[in-house]
Amino acid sequence: MSSTTSLPPVVPGTPDAPRLPRRSFLRYSGAGLAVGGLLLAGCDDDNDDITPSGTIDVGSGDNGVLNYAYALEQLEAAFYAKVKEGAYYKNLSAGLEKQVFDDLAIHEQIHADFFKTVLAGKAIKALEPDFSSINFNDRNSVLGAAKSFEDLGVAAYNGAGRYIQTEAYLLIAGKIVSVEARHAALIRDLINYNTFVASDVVDLFTPTSGTSAPGVGTGTGKEKSMKPTDVVNMANKFLKDGSKISASNIK
Amino acid sequence: MDFFKLISDIERVDPEIYDRLDSRRRVFKHFGLAGKTLTAAMLPNLVSGVFQRAYGQGTLNADIKAVLNLALSLEYLEFYYYDSGLKATGLIPAADRPAFEIIRNDESGHIKVLREALGGDAIPDPGRATFDYSGGKGSGDGPFAKAFTDYALYLGVSQAFVDTGVRAYKGGATKLMSNKDILEAALNIHSVEARHSSHVRTVRRGVAANAAATSVPGDLANLNKQPKSWISGTDNGGPSPSTTPSTAAVYGPGVPATGGPTELFFPADSNTTQAGIDLLTNTAGATAASASEAFDEALDAATVKSIARNFVDAKSTLFI
Predict the structure, then answer these.
(1) Which residue segments constitute the domains of chain A, with CATH numbers given?
(2) What is the interface pTM, i.e. ipTM, of the complex?
(3) What is the percent of chain B with per-residue pLDDT over 90, rounded to a whole number?
(4) Which chain B residue lies closest to A18 (C-alpha atoms)?
(5) Which has the closest alpha carbon to B277: A164, A160, A75, A112?
(6) Is the CB of residue A88 less than 8 Å from the CB of residue A139?
(7) Chain A nearest CA to B290, separation (Å)
(8) Element (H, E) at B202
């Protein structure tokens, strides 16, 4: 309840008016309810234990964001490890697709191991994935799932940046998210050429006319970032009971 | 006027009011009120300050303006490059035109977003004539003079521009942390630039191998012409390492190039140590190539400007 003590005393009238105790003023002004709401809102930050039952809370503050990223990277690393065991990958001859899945598997493992080491004793446990909805023998199923994971990763990092408090960690997140975006774009191009950017992930910009000056049109050309709670809802579909996560304390 | 009720009422209409104010409990600190007496006489200024901070454009600090205006300058550089490519008859094959239209339009959208964020502080549109895409600083006879007639060269310069942009946004992000909405907007532009880079690299592989773009793997022995869709090491200096200007600076170190685990520094893209952790020993099977590919590196503003300045008329003050 540090908010209570940091709230400045409130005094009615002119600066010269005699000061009343704050509680008296609240009664006097009828603003008690509103202030109460403000104080309660301030208290939310201190309640770190409220999570949906049975989920793993990634935590709050920078450790929360790092654990959130660690959870998503674990999921991606586990997915690509599984891809490499499936018939689709095993039947690939040397070429782009084989190189892509070799690279993505090691990139995501490097990301996951990195977060585990950075977090050290504060890291969440190793998560158990549930990939039962994915057919690892089928190219379309594997590419479709890869697209979902990579696009989700990009939207997740973009949406979590605002919660990072340490400059060095924001820089690290930036170094990773652009690699995820590179992955996502190539996977999408493999599924359907020239869909590296499309309306499901980017708020496309449409110029007013073919000869419009720059900046004249509708839309923004921005990626559609996602809030942690929305990302978690999607990620949990690929995590077993007991490994599902909660990010409700990232705020 | 009841300040607390007002905030409460705003919250009903805009649940993100506290996010706009950066942090719920620091709402008072923003206005220098912590520990001070709030008086009715202060309310009008306080309330207008709340709105200006939460929704206005008048409170950007100098660092944020500098980052956004450098980003805006780069977006103009890119917009006119892609727009000129699309206007150059016979340059871009029909199958690739949709991609470059998307990229050009994305840059136009980014220009709109950055201008809106900057308001009256936005630099004016420098116009097409300010740029010299030959790399000749206005002479028109730099090493990339044939960029609008030679598709492979056009793609190589595209890659250099977009990778410079990705590194620039990454380097500027930490300076935006005091304004969460602007930070998120910049991040949402940054990842789209990275998607562009990935695609341009994919197209380059196809052109280099004269084959369908999505059938050609990256060639670690020929990264200049056949790069992966991600940056491997320093990509051997990028598309044109031996010219003046060279694309090597796009993948090289910034300033400072070294620093401690929690410091901000800008190593070359071949870096394999992150937050003091040696990625080569931290993950079984990691190599210098894969560890460098897994993390893109940022660039500082001065290094970004020194790269971009090669592509504007020497008489212009853009990127100075």
Answers:
(1) 2-46 (no CATH), 56-246 (1.20.1260.10)
(2) 0.84
(3) 81
(4) B39
(5) A112
(6) yes
(7) 6
(8) helix B180-209
